[in-house]
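Q: Okay, next protein. This is POP1 protein from Sylvia atricapilla. I've checked the sequence twice, so it should be correct. Can you predict the 3D structure?
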Amino acid sequence: SKKQAEKAVHQKKEQSKTKCRKARRRHINLVAEFNHRQRKNIWLETHIWHAKRFHMVKKWGYCLGNSPTEKSYRACYRAMTKHCLLQDLSYYCCLELKGKENELLKQLARICSADTGLTFQEACCLSGRFEGSLNLYRADRYPEDMLGPVTFIWKPRDGSENRQLWIWVHPALKQDILRELKAIFQCSEPEEICITEPVTMSVQEEKQLEVVSSLGNKRKKEDKEGEKAVPVKKIIGDGTRDPFQSYSWIAQTTGIAISDRSMEILRYRLIGPLSHSVLTETLKAASIQTV
């Protein structure tokens, strides 16, 4: 009987330590836990949705959905052929170039060739109406030393000679291509340094935090995952970028600026005959007010 009484007391102690599901899944704790879990492999914004339905793999510094857990291949095929299927391609890295158009085209011509197809100065792409794709090579080394395939988008002209170009590269090729771009434009000086900073909480989250802090001692978490973890630090960067190193460089002679915009610009691919209909219903044109 004495052993049973001790066992009962021990069980009560264990039960008192475990929190209810609602307490364990409080938003402020989830954010801290999610940030902790993606220190090595960054999650896409659609990660939770994919994690519930896909086998996840860790590649190129990201956590990506590889194959569905259910037999949904027919549903995906049906969506592609008759409706609309969306893919999250946000793990692709975006390199942004800013500067004078002639300076950009002069140096970019060194890492591509018209023999392989269109180049950065193709009229339909240069206007900003269409996305282009090409193969990049090391400067003045064509047809040897290919770096890999990329896609690019010019920001439409605004009347100025300064232009903006986005180059999308696979994360496995990102470091080599970024190194080559910095070399041909002679960008070595960091324009700004990325520093982690606290997340700005919404009014609703602040109210939730006030409610949590006003509850009794039983609801308060005193361990390192609780009150001490607030404010939550946001993760800046992606699987191919060190958050404590500079992510923007500028050339002192030409003023050309290169910025690593990976995971700052999301990218989705819509496949299927109803893709345009989905975009039309989703995106609404903003009314431009002229002063």
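A: Here is a summary of the prediction. Residues 93-188+247-262 form a domain with the Alpha-Beta Plaits fold (CATH 3.30.70.1400). Residues 2-17 form the longest helix (16 residues).
Q: Noted. On to the next one.
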